[in-house]
Specification:
Length: 208
């Protein structure tokens, strides 16, 4: 009857509100930008990148329709102030595609470039959709591949001295694990990031 229908409507409304509230926990970046494909074709318009669908990026040019491109089709894309590139992680076990999008958080011309990759599960756990962040490093002389910041390739920090050999003083300080210029096998990404940024800064001013 009327009372029963009102209860059903109330339950339905509460469920819809819950869905809408939870939906706000999913992160999708949208803004002006550019998508550049592997063949050099470039599109400028409104770009959207969802952390729950990290293997693709969408773009709408003008009043046209949305077009979605998979990571294997894309070379790089720009979204507002962020520059994303397609990463090919090495030194880790991957499930499914071995490609990932990451945006550069160091200077574009840094000796060791660091990229930040963010993903988010489309399935909530306890009403929460946590963001998983992984950092990758691009090393000099190794084109087209990146390594996990926490992987064996970058730990301990003394392994990185060879990438700064044309700045002997800096390379020596890293190799000798000088205080303030080193980190161990077991540490946090925050410490690794700060130390590599320090190396890049020192290297940029080397000989000046």
């Amino acid at each position: 009857t009327d009372l029963k229908m009102k209860k059903i409507c109330l339950v339905f409304t509460m469920l819809m509100i819950a869905v809408l509230v939870n939906a706000q926990d999913f992160i999708s970046y949208k803004g002006s930008g550019k998508v550049i494909l592997n063949d050099g074709t470039a599109f400028e318009g409104t770009v959207e990148y969802s952390l729950t669908s990290p293997g693709s990026v969408s773009i709408k040019v003008g009043d046209g329709k949305w077009e979605k491109y998979k990571a294997k089709e894309v070379k790089e894309f720009y979204l507002d102030l962020k520059h994303y590139v397609v990463l090919k992680p090495k030194g880790e076990i991957s499930v499914g595609s071995d490609l990932a999008f990451g945006y550069i958080i160091t200077a574009e011309d840094a000796r060791i470039k660091i990229y930040k990759n963010e993903t988010q599960s489309p399935v909530m756990t306890g009403g929460v959709a946590p963001v998983e962040t992984t950092y990758y490093a691009s090393l000099p002389g190794v084109e087209g591949e990146v390594y996990p910041l926490a992987g064996m390739q970058l730990n301990p920090s003394s392994k990185l001295s060879k990438y700064f050999e044309d700045c002997p003083a800096l390379a020596e300080r890293i190799a000798k694990k000088e205080k303030g210029f080193s980190y161990g096998m077991i540490t946090t990404d925050e410490i690794r990031l700060a130390m590599i940024e320090k190396y890049n800064t020192e290297y940029a001013s080397c000989g000046k």
